[in-house]
């Protein structure tokens, strides 16, 4: 973590949308980066995503669990090398559950956390659905989250010129919160509303190690990455550019993909 004169505070950006700065400590960031490097290798590795209109997304992407393409999911890299999508590891799902629990907990244990160690399987996350404050500081004795386990990861790599336009994450069938983890260069993350691609929106700076969770009333909010800030990655991380990992719950029946008829354009 960079030395800060004033520590950055966690913030609710919109109902159900929470920014938790410095959620991953330096070791956890390195560990997640190493995992991303392995996932990026072929087969079913990092690829350029082509949109139906003939454009390409500037952020390159690799998927785990389910392969996302504009605009649906499949089990193979149907718009790439045709390989089977890489598996979604259990530890990543556990990280997702913990992220939701900690983002939505008012009194939960805070501060940097390691990537892999798993303390328990509890969750306070169900509270976001009703938009009421979660019960405080119960880490291990709470009911399980009402959603099936996280089973999709989209890993986006941004070089200095890459960006992502306003879009909704709308190809999943589950309303489970989306969990976003950032590594490397800082970026401007634009978090908007559920109705339009325009205002009102809030620009948040996401830095390496930051967590952003959006669920509940914000699950279908439009969001974007209008700008990456090149050269701002932590010196010790060894990453040039920015990586973002979003974790999602598909809500798909086992073995079946899904296609959305009307698509948005996150180019
Ligand atoms: O890179 C980010 O922070 C956001 C990525 C995103 O919105 C997505 O993968 O759908
Ligand atoms: Fe998104």
From TrEMBL:
<protein>
    <submittedName>
        <fullName>Alpha-ketoglutarate-dependent dioxygenase AlkB</fullName>
    </submittedName>
</protein>
<keyword id="KW-0223">Dioxygenase</keyword>
<keyword id="KW-0408">Iron</keyword>
<dbReference type="GO" id="GO:0008198">
    <property type="term" value="F:ferrous iron binding"/>
</dbReference>
<dbReference type="InterPro" id="IPR037151">
    <property type="entry name" value="AlkB-like_sf"/>
</dbReference>
<feature type="binding site">
    <location>
        <position position="167"/>
    </location>
    <ligand>
        <name>Fe cation</name>
    </ligand>
</feature>
<dbReference type="GO" id="GO:0005737">
    <property type="term" value="C:cytoplasm"/>
</dbReference>
<keyword id="KW-0479">Metal-binding</keyword>
<keyword id="KW-0560">Oxidoreductase</keyword>
<feature type="binding site">
    <location>
        <position position="223"/>
    </location>
    <ligand>
        <name>Fe cation</name>
    </ligand>
</feature>
<feature type="binding site">
    <location>
        <position position="169"/>
    </location>
    <ligand>
        <name>Fe cation</name>
    </ligand>
</feature>
<dbReference type="GO" id="GO:0035516">
    <property type="term" value="F:broad specificity oxidative DNA demethylase activity"/>
</dbReference>
<dbReference type="GO" id="GO:0035513">
    <property type="term" value="P:oxidative RNA demethylation"/>
</dbReference>
<dbReference type="GO" id="GO:0035515">
    <property type="term" value="F:oxidative RNA demethylase activity"/>
</dbReference>
<dbReference type="InterPro" id="IPR004574">
    <property type="entry name" value="Alkb"/>
</dbReference>
<feature type="domain" description="Fe2OG dioxygenase">
    <location>
        <begin position="149"/>
        <end position="251"/>
    </location>
</feature>
<dbReference type="InterPro" id="IPR005123">
    <property type="entry name" value="Oxoglu/Fe-dep_dioxygenase_dom"/>
</dbReference>
<dbReference type="InterPro" id="IPR027450">
    <property type="entry name" value="AlkB-like"/>
</dbReference>
<dbReference type="Pfam" id="PF13532">
    <property type="entry name" value="2OG-FeII_Oxy_2"/>
</dbReference>
């Amino acid at each position: 973590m960079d030395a800060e004169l004033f520590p950055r505070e966690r913030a609710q950006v919109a109902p159900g949308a929470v920014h938790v700065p410095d959620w991953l400590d330096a070791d956890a960031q390195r560990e997640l980066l190493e995992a991303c490097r392995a996932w990026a290798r072929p087969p079913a590795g990092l690829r350029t995503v082509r949109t139906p209109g003939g454009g390409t997304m500037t952020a390159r992407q690799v998927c785990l669990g389910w392969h996302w393409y504009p605009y649906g999911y499949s089990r193979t890299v149907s718009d790439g090398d045709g390989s089977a999508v890489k598996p979604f590891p259990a530890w990543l799902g556990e990280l997702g559950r913990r992220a939701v629990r900690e983002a939505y907990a008012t009194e939960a244990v805070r501060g940097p956390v390691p990537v892999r160690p798993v303390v328990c399987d509890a969750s306070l996350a169900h509270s976001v659905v009703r938009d009421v404050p979660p019960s405080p500081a119960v880490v291990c004795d709470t009911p399980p989250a009402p959603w099936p386990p996280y089973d999709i990861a989209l890993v986006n790599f941004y070089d200095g010129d890459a960006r992502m336009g306003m879009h909704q994450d709308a190809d999943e069938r589950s309303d489970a919160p989306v969990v976003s983890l950032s590594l490397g260069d800082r970026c401007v993350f634009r978090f908007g509303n559920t109705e339009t691609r325009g205002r009102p929106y809030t620009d948040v700076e996401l830095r390496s190690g930051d967590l952003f969770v959006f669920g509940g009333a914000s699950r279908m909010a439009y969001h974007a990455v209008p700008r990456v800030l090149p050269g701002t990655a932590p010196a010790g991380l060894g990453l040039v550019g920015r990586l973002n990992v979003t974790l999602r719950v598909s809500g798909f029946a086992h073995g079946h993909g899904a296609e959305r008829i009307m698509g948005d354009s996150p180019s």
